[in-house]
């Protein structure tokens, strides 16, 4: 395990991504130098890599550089949960960004097989909760509003229309109109199916009790801390 400051990022990525032969998995919480350097290095690697990119950015234009990478098979998903900058190459070596409030914090290059496997599992868990970019982009902007998310949470949790309208502080008629629009957007035939479909597509997390949620999510994941 090697720790360096952010000035070593381009060189570290050149060594890791430049030498990739099969797969590259990358998690990105936002746009920035980390993403730009990964894209630049990937574009110079002529191998027909499989690239899995997971990010929180929702804007369509943010995905285009990834989808246009030459000679690469790119699979992209969006996850609105907390992500950390992470790169895993060929399942053998990884690079993580230390948890910090600074835009570009300390880098950790991980080459221990067991530690890399842990990072792969964390990535896989976040990946499984994400939704494909094609599914995300086909939804209208209305499906990404706080109002829609609130209604979907109420549907998922099995609230009656009357209870849900009261919780949303809207009239029953207005609530039912919103539900009808959401069901049409999700191609759902029932309220339960709409909630389930939203979870399936990653728009919502599965419903959990507070106690189960705390067990499943004890706190934000900080890769560098878990490897210390």
Question: Please, could you describe this protein's structure?
Answer:
The protein is α+β, with helices and mostly antiparallel strands. 47% of the residues lie in helices and 16% in strands. It contains 11 helices and 8 strands. Mean pLDDT is 80; it is low at 208-228. Helix 7 (161-168) crosses helix 8 (172-186). It is elongated, with a radius of gyration of 20 Å. This is Helix-turn-helix transcriptional regulator.
CATH homologous superfamily (4th level) name of the largest domain:
Endonuclease Chain A
Extended strand count: 8
As a percent range, the share of strand residues is 15-25%
Mean pLDDT over the residues: 80
State the helix count.
11
Low-confidence runs: 208-228
Write the CATH architecture name of the largest domain.
2-Layer Sandwich
User: What share of residues is helical?
Assistant: 40-55%
Helix-and-strand structural type: alpha+beta
Domain count: 2
Distance between the termini: 10 Å
SSE order, one letter for each helix or strand: EHEHEHEEEEHEHHHHHHH
The first-level CATH class of the largest domain is given as Alpha Beta
Shape designation: elongated
Largest sheet: 8 strands, mixed
Find the CATH topology of the largest domain. Endonuclease, Chain A
Tell me the Rg in angstroms.
Answer: 20 Å
Protein name: Helix-turn-helix transcriptional regulator
Domain HTH luxR-type: 141-198
Organism: Streptomyces halobius
């Amino acid at each position: 395990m090697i720790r360096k400051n952010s000035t070593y990022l381009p060189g570290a990525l050149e060594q890791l991504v430049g030498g990739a032969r099969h797969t590259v998995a990358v998690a990105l919480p936002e746009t920035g130098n980390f993403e730009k350097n990964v894209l630049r290095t990937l574009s110079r690697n002529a191998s027909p890599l499989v690239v899995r990119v997971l990010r929180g950015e929702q804007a369509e234009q943010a995905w285009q550089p990834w989808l246009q990478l030459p000679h690469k098979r790119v699979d992209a998903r969006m996850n609105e949960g907390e992500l950390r900058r992470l790169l895993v190459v060929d399942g053998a070596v990884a690079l993580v960004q230390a948890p910090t409030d600074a835009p570009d914090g300390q880098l950790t290059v991980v080459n221990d097989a067991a530690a890399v496997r842990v990072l792969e599992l964390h990535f896989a868990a976040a990946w499984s909760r994400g939704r494909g970019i094609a599914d995300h982009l086909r939804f209208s902007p209305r499906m990404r509003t706080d109002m829609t998310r609130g209604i979907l949470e109420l549907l998922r949790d099995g609230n009656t229309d009357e209870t849900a309208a009261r919780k949303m502080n809207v009239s029953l008629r207005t609530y039912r109109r919103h539900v009808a629009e959401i069901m049409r957007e999700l191609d759902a035939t029932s309220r339960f199916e709409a909630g389930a479909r939203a979870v399936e597509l990653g728009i919502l997390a599965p419903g959990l009790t507070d106690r189960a949620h705390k067990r499943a999510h004890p706190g934000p994941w900080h890769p560098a801390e878990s490897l210390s």
